[in-house]
Amino acid sequence: MPLHMPPPTPHISAQAGDFAEAVLLPGDPLRAKHIAEHHFDDARQVTAVRNMLGFTGSYKGMPVSVMGTGMGIPSVSIYATELIAEYGVRRLVRVGSCGAIAEDVKLRDIILAVGAGTDSQVNRRRYGGNDFAAVADFGLLRAAAQAGEAAGISIRAGLVHTADLFYEPAAKPFEIMAKMGVLAAEMEAAGLYGLAAECGARALAILTVSDHLITGESTSSDERQTTFDDMVHLALEALLLDALSLDAKGLDAKGTRDRGKP
Ligand code: HPA
Distance from the CA of 98 to the center of ligand 1, in angstroms? Predict the structure, then answer.
């Protein structure tokens, strides 16, 4: 990864050590603020370049950060690259929304993105022109599934489609995706998973269904907020469980896949 600049970086004004090794990544910076204010203890703002707010605090004693990413692979890639390469972030959990593709996926469902197909070229560029399998980190995925069960939050786990275009001009490709078991469409997961693989970090995308691309239904903003808070709770519990399981194995929070600073 061609990036060697000491903090602050071009897009993050925090100092070295301002971010925890675990970071939640909502698209909307005001959602980052909401998470810091409602889910963290002792939160402090650490960056605000372009109003892309970032905060660090703790959750049940675990140091944790949150930062907005903007929308789409290019935007999330800028922030995640700088967080990993220059701020020592090793666990990244996207908390976002998605549009349902599968008929049996309902509004407000919470989806764990096991893997992400995409129409973006970024992972081919990373992977010598070949098709990379963009998948979630298994430890984080398992921890999220366990945390969902423990909290009584029902979750779906499966494939998503990461789209470059929110407004597709062509015929919508959703029919073939539904046929192949893809649950929903969103705009970041495949890029985040590819980047994490490239940098030896660990990533998971958790998504709530904000609208249904086949039926055209969508959630109210109140419903979105409630589901969003359930998802954030799940993400934080998953990070905690994952940290405990690493601890029990005598590993540090970086996990087994840390290959040192990229
Ligand atoms: N497409 C891509 N991302 C989304 C959508 C969508 O329809 N809905 C929510 N996130």
Answer: 5
Return the pLDDT at 3: 61
CA of 103 to the centre of ligand 1 (A): 15
Taking a C-beta distance cutoff of 8 angstroms, is the pair 186, 97 a contact?
yes
Cα separation, 53 vs 43, whole angstroms: 12
The CA distance from 209 to 111, in Å, is 8
The pTM assigned to this predicted structure is 0.94
Give the residue whose CA is nearest to atom 6 of ligand 1: 99
Closest CA to 186 of 84, 54, 95: 95
Name which residue sits closest to atom 9 of ligand 1, judged by CA. 98
Name the DSSP class of 213.
Answer: T
Look up residue 85 and give its DSSP letter: H
Query: Would you give the end-to-end CA distance of the chain in angstroms?
Result: 6
What separation in angstroms does the CA of 112 have from each of 9, 14, 158, 189, 231?
A: 31, 30, 6, 11, 10
- Count the Cβ atoms, other than its own, within 10 Å of residue 207: 26
State whether the beta carbon of 99 lies less than 6 angstroms from ligand 1: yes
Structure tokens at 139: 């430890």
β-pairing, 62-67 vs 54-59, is antiparallel
**Would you call 119 a catalytic residue per the annotation?**
no
| pLDDT tens per residue across span 2-21 | 566 789 999 999 999 999 99
Q: How many CB atoms neighbour CB 19 within 10 A?
A: 27
For the chain, list the domains and their CATH numbers.
Answer: 22-248 (3.40.50.1580)
